[in-house]
Backbone:
């Protein structure tokens, strides 16, 4: 494959996922810095090689990327603090590849860190306090929560297509089964469909076990030119296609069931020139069980309304037609607020065949799709199609 | 189960027409006289023409149907925690746009997708003494 054209001109050279799921004695930036070390070590690079810095977090605000550069005592030639929610880091890979392709930087470092669990953040159900922001004046009076937004999507999907709670539960059960094979996963004890359906209702039709966990954690990704990546420690992982999109309520007429993944996924597939059937496994942001179902349909892995059958027939299991989240996902492994970075990290580790018991059999092409925000309100989507170096 | 204590909205210049209308008991929407777009949420201009000259406010029928909904059983936020379970919904208004709201005055199990609903207004005094009203919907 030519390494002169975008996005093949850049490659992922190193990744690191923080093993901790609870870090009460660390700050966000400290977790990010530890991850930076891990990913640079993985690539066989050092801090002084970094000339592009990318990052986002739950608390990084205005000039947050500058604060991060100061913490690391880095003076990069290129920086990007794009924050489009949990999908940000999937988008950062695209942005970093573009910057490398354009010659704006040569070694890009993407970082995430969070202490969501040790700060006791109520990410899903703490919404809608009395905000004085005019932009939320049309949601805060009505008790909108993150889980409530996803629940409205789920209810519409059930009404439109006959999707059942049992089918959604199958997604949680599958993620837990995968997590049981991941030594770092936070929740490893197997669960049954009955466990999911019997767990406390949070926002109908979503039960507690339809919701992701809350953990601490962080991760890092290092990209460089495809040429240089070939001379580094680990086999490069190639970027075959990428896409970004946004979906929202607009002027009040959006089709709720169409999520950003439809647009970002189509663009990524067009760029990569591969078919859905070429994808060996997928990393899909699983904030809730319904997120997986909605994403599978909108990415075109099954027809709209067929997601329920797809998952209940074992489609997303490690031995299924499209293994999804071999690490156990946000539902069982880790979810420190914004999970996108782990989608890319696990995809890379799987393509390098480093995943032990949870290893997908000889994968060559993977898809990662991040969702940021809430699919029942407004959200971003970022898709990557990655492949082994050939 | 208690009544929801709605956090009262902070109206901006752009949304003033909507919230002033709510205070009078009217559901007020915006229409662009140039392109015909009826938009919600309100803006200082037509989102499609990007012009403010032809934007007008009008009193909508207050009628619509439930697009989708959820029965919220957990929300720690003040004003809602005590009111769980409550029904949060999107209502598609007769005039076209969809609005986020709550469905009140019924048992949660009575609400269904497609059910006809009608607006009513909950008035509350804000800490600063201003009186505000929030449009909510009930089964029609």
Residues:
């Amino acid at each position: 494959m030519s390494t002169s054209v975008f996005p093949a001109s850049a490659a992922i050279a190193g990744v690191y996922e923080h093993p901790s799921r609870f870090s009460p004695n660390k700050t966000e930036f400290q977790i990010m810095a530890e991850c930076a070390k891990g990913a640079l070590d993985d690539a066989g690079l050092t801090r002084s090689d970094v000339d592009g810095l990318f990052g986002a977090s739950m608390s990084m605000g205005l000039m947050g990327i500058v604060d991060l550069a100061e913490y690391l005592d880095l003076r990069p030639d290129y920086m990007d603090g794009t924050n489009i929610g949990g999908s940000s880091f999937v988008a950062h890979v695209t942005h970093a590849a573009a910057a490398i392709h354009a010659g704006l930087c040569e070694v890009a470092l993407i970082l995430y860190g969070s202490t969501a669990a040790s700060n006791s953040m109520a990410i899903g159900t703490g919404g809608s306090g009395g905000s004085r922001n005019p932009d939320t004046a049309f949601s805060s009076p009505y008790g909108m929560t993150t889980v409530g937004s996803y629940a409205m999507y789920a209810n519409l999907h059930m009404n439109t297509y006959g999707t059942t709670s049992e089918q959604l539960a199958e997604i949680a059960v599958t993620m837990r089964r995968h997590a049981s094979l991941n030594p770092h996963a936070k929740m490893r004890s197997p669960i049954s469909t009955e466990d999911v359906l019997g767990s406390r209702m949070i926002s109908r039709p979503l039960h507690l076990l339809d919701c992701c966990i809350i953990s601490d954690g962080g991760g890092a990704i290092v990209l460089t030119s495809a040429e240089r990546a070939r001379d580094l420690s680990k086999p490069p992982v190639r970027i075959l296609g990428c896409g970004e999109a946004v979906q929202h309520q607009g002027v009040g007429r959006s089709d709720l069931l169409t999520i950003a993944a439809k647009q970002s996924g189509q663009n990524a597939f067009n760029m990569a020139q591969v078919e859905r059937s070429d994808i060996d496994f997928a990393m899909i942001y699983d904030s809730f069980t319904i997120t997986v179902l909605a994403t599978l349909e909108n990415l075109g892995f099954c027809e709209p309304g067929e997601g329920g059958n797809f998952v209940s027939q074992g489609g997303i299991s490690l031995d299924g037609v499209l293994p999804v989240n071999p690490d156990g996902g946000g539902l069982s492994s880790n979810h420190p607020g914004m999970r996108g970075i782990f989608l890319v990290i696990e995809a890379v580790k799987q393509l390098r065949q480093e995943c032990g018991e949870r290893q997908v059999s000889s994968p060559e092409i993977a898809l990662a799709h991040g969702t940021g925000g809430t699919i029942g309100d407004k959200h971003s989507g970022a898709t990557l199609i990655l492949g082994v170096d050939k | 189960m208690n009544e929801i204590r709605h956090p009262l909205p902070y109206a901006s210049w752009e949304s003033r027409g909507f919230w002033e209308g709510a205070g009078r008991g009217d559901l007020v929407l915006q229409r662009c006289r140039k392109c015909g777009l009826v938009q919600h949420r309100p803006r200082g201009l037509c989102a499609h023409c990007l012009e403010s000259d032809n934007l007008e406010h009008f009193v909508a029928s207050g009628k619509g149907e439930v697009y989708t909904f959820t029965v919220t059983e957990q929300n720690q936020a003040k004003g809602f925690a005590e009111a769980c379970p409550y029904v949060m919904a999107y209502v598609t208004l007769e005039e076209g746009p969809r609005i986020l709201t709550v469905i009140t005055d019924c048992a949660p199990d009575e609400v269904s997708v497609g059910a006809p609903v009608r607006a009513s207004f909950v008035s509350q005094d804000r800490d600063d003494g201003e009186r505000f009203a929030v449009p909510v919907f009930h089964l029609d």
Observations:
- The first helix of chain A runs from residue 28 to 43.
- Residues 81 and 115 of chain A are 19 Å apart (CA to CA).
